[in-house]
Amino acid sequence: MKILFIGDIFGQPGRRILKGTLPALRNELQPDLVLANAENAAAGLGITPPLVDELLDLDIAVLTSGNHIWDKKEILPYFREQVNGRLLRPANYPANAPGRGLFVGKTPAGIGYAVINLQGRVFMPALDCPFRKADELLRSIPEDVKIRIVDLHAEATSEKQALGWYLDGRVTAVLGTHTHVPTADEIVLPQGTAYITDLGMTGPYESIIGMERQSVIQRFLDQLPTRFEVATGDVRLCGVLLEVDPPSGRALSIQRVLRK
Predict the structure, then answer these.
(1) What does the alpha-carbon distance between residue 240 and residue 235 come to, in Å, rounded to a whole number?
(2) φ and ψ at 146, to 5 degrees?
(3) pLDDT by residue (tens digit) across 26-36?
(4) pLDDT tens-place string over residues 159-183
(5) Quick one: which of 131, 130, 251 has its CA closest to 190?
(6) Is residue 226 part of a domain?
(7) How confident is the model at residue 226 (pLDDT cuts 50, 70, 90)?
(8) Residues 6 or more apart whose Cβ sits within 8 Å of residue 103
């Protein structure tokens, strides 16, 4: 079984390349399941209900998110009203936050899978422990659902690596998002868990993590508030392709995917 996980979709450029590239990518890679992080799909900050529907209409099975999920306030009632649960927010937010961080479903071929969305705590808002929350969620997943994919939306490489090793052998993959720069450390850990520190961004790379360069540089120079705009140059789709063994849930391989 093959799983394509697409890195942080950033603004209109990210959505545009996703729409333009995904059909050919499906034909080439033949994924059985497509997942994506979409927390920055709306102008680089947050996501709106129409954009959720737009992305799900591309046959992306589940959308994960992170710390920017609340930036567009219209997403709050959407979380309360959605019936399919295919847009996730990090599971370790307080329990009374709308939405949930776990999706359990089946592929069109009837293979069960689970997607867990977590957020790190190092250099990030203080949330519940992602390690203990992962333990809790894994106990709630039916035993026969062996394929378990974790999106850890976190700043620190050390925290991402630590969760990868902590969950090795208990999940199919621990995939990092948030920093928007693809890393070259993809690996299948000894007990069969695929790992990468960051999937990279699906968006404009002639930028500073997606935003126009000059305004970000100026912010570093004078530390004054400024408005950031989504960049437009060198747009790429980034992510990974996993090959997994459905009966065991073990990852067989992980490879980076990059398309321009």
Answers:
(1) 17
(2) -90, -25
(3) 999 999 999 99
(4) 999 999 999 999 999 999 999 999 9
(5) 251
(6) no
(7) confident
(8) 62, 85, 86, 88, 114, 115
Taking alpha carbons only, the member of 111, 151, 109 closest to residue 134 is 151
Nearest to 9 by CA among 163, 186, 210, 206: 210
Count other C-beta atoms under 10 Å from residue 130's C-beta.
28
Identify the band that residue 83 occupies on the pLDDT scale cut at 50, 70 and 90: low
- In whole angstroms, what is the distance from residue 35 CA to residue 26 CA? 12
The answer as to whether 193 is a domain residue is: yes
Residue numbers of the domain that contains 82: 2-203+232-259
Contact in structure between 150 and 159 (CB atoms under 8 Å): no
Contacts of 228 by beta carbon, 8 Å cutoff, 6+ apart: 44, 211, 212, 215, 216
**Number of domains making up the chain:** 1
C-alpha–C-alpha distance, residues 19 and 58, integer Å: 7
Q: Answer whether residue 208 is part of any domain.
A: no
Spatial separation of the C-alpha atoms in residues 65 and 70, rounded to whole Å:
10
Helix pair 11-29, 49-56: axis angle to 10 deg: 20
Q: Do the Cβ atoms of 49 and 19 come closer than 8 Å?
A: no
Residue that has been written with the tokens 């069109």 in this structure: 108
Which residues lie closer than 8 Å to 90 by C-beta, 6 or more apart?
Answer: 65, 66, 67, 69, 101, 117, 118, 119, 127, 130, 153
Among this protein's residues, is 180 annotated catalytic?
no
Give this prediction's pTM: 0.95
Give the integer Cα–Cα distance in Å for 39 and 119.
12
Token couple for 68: 């920017």
> Where residue 250 sits, what CATH number does that domain have?
3.60.21.10
